[in-house]
Amino acid sequence: RKHYFYADLPVGYQITQQRCPIAVDGNLAYSLSVGKNNMIPKSVRIKQIQLEQDSGKSLHDEARTQTLIDLNRAGVGLIEIVMEPDMRSGDEAAAAVRELQLILQTLGTSHGNMAEGQLRVDANISVHQPGEPYGVRTEVKNINSARFLARAIDYEIQRQIEVLENGGKILNETRAFDYKSGQTISMRDKEGKQDYRFMPEPNLPPLIIYDNETLPVNMNPQQVVNIDSIREQLPELPCVKRTRLVEKYGIRNEHSFTLVNEDGLVQFYEHIVEQTQASPKKVIGWVINDFLALLKQDNFKVHQSPISPTDMSEVLNLLENRLISSSVAKQVLVELWKGDGKTATQIVELKELGLIKDQKKLEQICQGVIEDHPTEVSEIRQGNWKVINKLIGQVQRATHGRTSPTLVKSILEKKLS
User: Fold this and answer.
1) Do the strands 183-189 and 209-210 form a parallel or antiparallel pair, or are they unpaired?
2) What angle in degrees, to the nearest 10, is found between the helix axes of 388-398 and 405-416?
3) Which helix (DSSP H) or strand (DSSP E) does residue 174 occupy?
């Protein structure tokens, strides 16, 4: 028991693994996004993981100058993961926390929703000159989003640098992050050493962890914690999944991050790949650029999508078999998103969206566009062939996207050369 008084801990003590944490000397590998398509591998050491009691939640009502206490979670067990000071910026810390969040969600340990308090971060921050010892640290408590974590750390780094450069001293204190102002605010100092009067918790039996070598022969496997047995049951972790996606489908590394970061998107993508004639690299473009855009438009999760992997596969098969153009494929996805129960093939037939295959009809349409755009035709004949893309766009508009841009380009080139 760790004894101290705080308003949201009514028993006056907290049960924690003070002397013997459940795990020590770990490591978390993560990737930092730098620029548009560059992922830099990073890692942070994990000092220890310990189990302890959660406290309640203080709700500060500034209008009434009151603090309300929500004790619903007080006493519930939580995992505290203590990391070593290996990170150098807010972005690094945010990336590490996002990776940890994914791991916890994959394992089923927690939903990891930071906004709902299922995962919270306390950030310890100090600054120092190269070659000098670490400076005095401050702790920013209870940060509830990765974005706010990055902002809080970067603000605190700059604040401490300015204090030191102006001849001041950094106090060992607890601070809070105000997301509205983007600043950290002092809460209480930690200069005085507190006597927590640690004592063994008398009401809980010891928690003993075994592996295959230390497991007693006569012990019931169902009544003990065997880490080797747990390891065998682990699901595919995010870093393993990303590597598999890149190696199996030949997609880019940053695309593997996008797939894994969105709950259910890996399964969605792999189901499409299994059912379509399109290459995995083509499928990834449609999933990330078009399907994700539709999800974000309505703020949907993958499992809420009106478009199934089978629907998406049918659209891509129509495109692969040259029955529709890519612009029509986008139109069909928008129609499927309405959830009217029609298949992609039915939508194409009902709306007459199939590719125009009549060569003479296409040539007539192209001739009409040429006659209607003398300025562009003049530029092309003077050697500026880039302008032909504008004419291709006009043909596409005239046919509502029912033409192959490649075929249209060859007809226009033939007529203009």
Assistant:
1) unpaired
2) 120
3) strand 173-178
Contact 325, 403 (CB under 8 A): yes
Contacts for 230 with CB less than 8 Å, ≥ 6 apart: none
Edge-to-edge strands, sheet with 77-83: 23-34, 38-53, 77-83
Banded pLDDT at 154 (limits 50, 70, 90): very high
Nearest CA to 266 out of 254, 284, 285 is that of 284
Give CA–CA dist 87/94, Å, rounded: 10
Q: Radius of gyration over alpha carbons of the chain, in Å?
A: 30
For residues 111 and 263, give the distance between their C-alpha atoms in angstroms, rounded to a whole number.
11
Beta-bridge partner residues of 175:
140, 186
pLDDT at 190: 67
DSSP conformational letter for 89: S
CB within 8 A of 334, min separation 6: which ones? 294
Sequence-distant (≥ 6) Cβ neighbours of residue 103 within 8 angstroms: 237, 238
Sign of the Cα pseudo-torsion (264, 266, 268, 270, in order)? negative
Quote the percentage of the chain above a pLDDT of 90: 61
Beta carbons within 10 angstroms of residue 2's beta carbon: 17
